[in-house]
Amino acid sequence: MRLRNHRNYAQLDLTPGPGVNVFIGANGQGKTNLLEAVAMLALSSSPRARRELELVGPVAPMARIEAEVESGGITAELAITLTVEGDRARRVIEVDGVRRRAFDLPGRFRVTLFWPDDLGLIKAGPELRRRFLNQMLVQIEPGYARALAGLKRVLEQRNSLLKRIAAGEEGGDVLDVWNQELIRLGGEVAAARSAAVLELQPEAARYHAEIAGGERLDIRYEGPPKDLAEAVHNSLAEDLRRGSTSVGPHHDDLRVLLEGQDARAYSSQGQQRTAVVSLKLAEAALVARRTGERPVLLLDDVLSELDAERRAALLRQVGGEGQVIITSVEAGPFPPELIANAMVWTVIEGRIEACG
Ligand SMILES: Nc1ncnc2c1ncn2[C@@H]1O[C@H](COP(=O)(O)OP(=O)(O)O)[C@@H](O)[C@H]1O
Ligand SMILES: [Mg+2]
After folding, report:
1. Which of 23, 98, 346, 348 minimizes the number of CB atoms within 10 Å of its CB?
2. Domains in the chain, start-ordered, CATH in brackets?
3. pTM for the full model?
4. Which atom of ligand 1 lies at the shortest distance from residue 29's CA?
5. Ligand 1 mean position to 326 CA, how many Å?
């Protein structure tokens, strides 16, 4: 992987090992920035930056993330270039030197990302849980990234038309084409999410029971109404009043239940963390099963946040085959046998060095 002017990396050339790679560094040195770059190659956009301009470092009006990745025996050169244009950054994605659209990138290289924000997944708002499903699905479901991008555009167009119609600037019939698209793309997204949650459920439950002494975890997809066409039709008056689209997968949630009770309302922090670890492990397993290949596991600073049992459960996934990138402020939480078989690196002020 090569980084040029990505956040605090002026210039980085890194060849991680095929197994476990541990990156140790104090706060603010570039550990998360590194993982972010790797994740972007799988997801096409940053999982944390609100604006892409944030990603561009101080030494040039351009940032570049490049990597040679191997998946299913096929090697590809992936590159993301951000060029500052006024108060925004323009993104260009290339695969083997050929320019591609953002939704063409995911699926060529896959990651399962787990970082401290995820520990709040259960208590946070539904947006984070939708993101959890999206990050997994763009990587394994051909067409999902495109449907998602299409849906976003449909909602923007439809919402702006709703306001114009309400203001008497447009007739109601301009909505027809957008309603059709909402129903088509919304149905596609909802079907993929629904199938994925059904598939995640048994595995997540198994991991959770294992870590939490038999406690029962249930996850349920709360999607749009089954008859989306009818629901879109019936909500029209309400949509016009609000100036926004009230039905569709942009309101979805993932319901998490512990012993039949809503985990959002009733769970302790320990139970939530166990549920999150279980969801992430189930995600990695699902990606591996669907694609025949383990995703690269990206674990950002989470080991120190987890107790011994959850850490061990996570690390059991880490052992054996598959590439893993783990960051930590200290080597303390890692079992010696893991360190003995890992490549260990230090991160200091945007520079990375191998240390044994
Ligand atoms: N666009 C940018 N240009 C230069 N430095 C940046 C940029 N964005 C973030 N940083 C720097 O990156 C550092 C944080 O890196 P991060 O990877 O989050 O640290 P940590 O090692 O704690 O995970 C901070 O020092 C921050 O100032
Ligand atoms: Mg960090």
Report:
1. 98
2. 117-291 (1.20.1050.90)
3. 0.95
4. 21
5. 17
